[in-house]
Amino acid sequence: xxxxxxxxxxxxxxxxxxxxxxxxxxxxxxxxxxxxxxxxxxxxxxxxxxxxxxxxxxxxxxxxxxxxxxxxxxxxxxxxxxxxxxxxxxxxxxxxxxxxxxxxxxxxxxxxxxxxxxxxxxxxxxx
Length: 127
Description:
Elements: H1 12-22, E1 34-41, E2 44-49, E3 53-62, E4 69-85, E5 90-95, E6 111-114, E7 118-123
Antiparallel strand pairs: 1-2, 1-7, 2-3, 3-4, 4-5, 5-6
């Protein structure tokens, strides 16, 4: 599958199976495992990458005297992505957010992303 911080290689398949069960999703076969997805949510372009915190870019258009100007602002969330489970019509993203961690995430765990919101993706075998 690939490396996930804090998860020994010997435990990866077991963890993936548990996360898939949590999402009521099938365990993706090795060639269908996603390392990263980029998706649009409420006007923000987010990137979920396994082993990294969620990050994004919010773009707003502001008026100026001559023409509209797009202003981009980086945004982030402290949740670390543990797995991305593909599906149709939804992808499931599993993070380390939950009631026992010392940070607050804006995202449910796991959360879903509609396939029509996906702007890009990278599989483990191409990462």
